[in-house]
Amino acid sequence: MSEQRARYQTDLTDAEWQIIEPLVPAAKPGGRPRKYPVREVLNAILYILRGGCVWRLLPHDLPPWKTVYHYFRLWRKDGVFEQMNTALRTKSRLAVGREAEPSAGVLDSQSVKTTETPGIRGYDAGKKIKGRKRHLLVDTMGLLLMVVVHGADIQDRDGAKLVLAKIKGCFPRLRLIWADGGYAGKLIDWVKDNCRRVLEIVKRNDDVKGFQVLPHRWVVERSLGWLGRYRRLSRDYEELPETSEALVYTAMCHLMVRRLARQTQPAGP
Known about the structure:
By secondary structure, this protein is α/β, with parallel strands linked by helices. It has eight helices and six strands.
C-alpha cells in the first residue's frame, strides 16, 4: 500500500500480501515496466468488489480505473482468479489439518437480479427473479470449488450439469455431492454415469414447519452468505458471465487470504 494515502478497510495487509503475492502473475518480459504496484491494483479491485462501486468511481488515490480494469480483464481471461482460489483453498484446507483435495462437496444455486447492462439473462419462475443464477460447488468447509453463471431461466438440474461438466478431470478424491430436492430425478443417474460420482439429495422434513437447518446443505448457504458481504455481488452488473464468475472467485480469495493471515499471526501475550 502506498504510504501517501490513508488505508481502506479492503486493503491487503502486509501478512495478506505475503500470502497472495506469489500467486500474482509476474510482468511479461520485454514490455513496459509496471507503473503501479500490483498490490495497489488488487487493493482497487477489492475496493470495487466489497464497496459495490463502478470502475469509474474508484477513488483518485488508487490507480486509475482504466489501469485496474485492464489488469482485471487480463487476469480474468488468463484464469488467474480461479488459480488463486485453488491455491488458497489448498492452503486453507491444509492449515486446519484437512487433505489438500476434498472428498465431498455441496451444490446449490443463487438467483440474482441483473441491471440494464447487456448480457444473458432469464426469468426464474420459482424465485420470481429476472436475471442470472450463480451455481456453486463448495467443499465441506464452504470453500469454492467451481462456479458457473448462467441465465436464471435454466433449471437447477440443467445448471448443475454445467458445473459438474467443468469438474471432469478435477478433484480426484471428490466422490460425494450433496444437493437439495431441486436436483432430484434423472440428474442422479446422469451424475453417476457421466461424472462417476454420487449425488445425494438432502430433503426437507415436511412435518417440521418454519426454518430448518438441513444437514450439509447449510454449508453452501453459509458460503452464499459470505459472498453477500461483497456489495458488487448484490446484483449481477456484468455484461459477461465470465466476469461475474471471476468476481465470485476474487471474493472467495479475499475471504481465504484474510483467514490464513489471521491463522499465521503470532498469539498475543
